[in-house]
Amino acid sequence: MANEASLTAPDMTETQADDPHGGHDMEMPADDAAAMPAEPDAGHDMQSMEDMPAAPASGPPPEAFSGPAHVADALFGADEMTAAREQARAEMGGFTTHGFFADRLEAQIGDDPDAYLWDLNAWYGGDIDKLWIKNEGEGAFNGELEGIETQALWSHAIGPYFDIQSGVRYDIRPGSNRGHLVLGVQGLAPYFFELDAAAFLSDRGDITARIEAEYDQRITQRLILQPRAEISFAAQDIPEIGIGSGISSFEAGLRLRYEFVPEFAPYVGVEWQQRIGDTADFARAAGEDPGRVVLLTGVRLWF
Q: Structural domains in the chain?
């Protein structure tokens, strides 16, 4: 057993030699222990929640409402500041503006006849109410004018992005002029789709409707691709102008324009034009093709 103990017990002499603190008492001197700072909370009880001060009342104190509604009135006079505030209100949003847009001035090249088309918009008014004028027409280069449509509308904002529009429309067509009442909505839908939807009641009792949608996809800051679609409806057959009930026609196209400046942008494109249902039957009876694909070239202007 003595031999076994000699193998396992450490050599105290070697341990003390290796450890410079070996054999020394690690206990702190009494003078140093007295110099140590005491715990800040030592000997104190935690303050109870009931003793905590109450949270301050929310909102401004009553004295905040004892002065004038506008402090500047006390310095410059109420009458002078009232006039100044009205002027600022007018300059920041109460003014009237105007605009003119030629969205489409284009030639359509395809199966005979080649055609031309214009689509114009003008407006005058403020942020909430405007007078809006729309004019569009088309015809064949080697034939007569197919028709002109003019709308005069009161446009009233119903939100940040949409206006409701109502007014009158007058069509000039060979042998069949007619007037309409108009009710529609126009604006910017989510994802920046521009929408123009309207219903029309003619002076002969015919009800028609039309929805137009377009979207500007910027390829660069100047090069813009614009998908555009238009669909027309009718509640009844109108054979004198070649329109059948239901969905009467559909157009879908792409226009690629280059903005030399924002106010001037020539474009090229392609469009599919299709008359549907009874409208297509009226076209065939008149010797016309109910559907065609045309190449487009034109210019977009505004000022």
A: 97-302 (2.40.160.40)
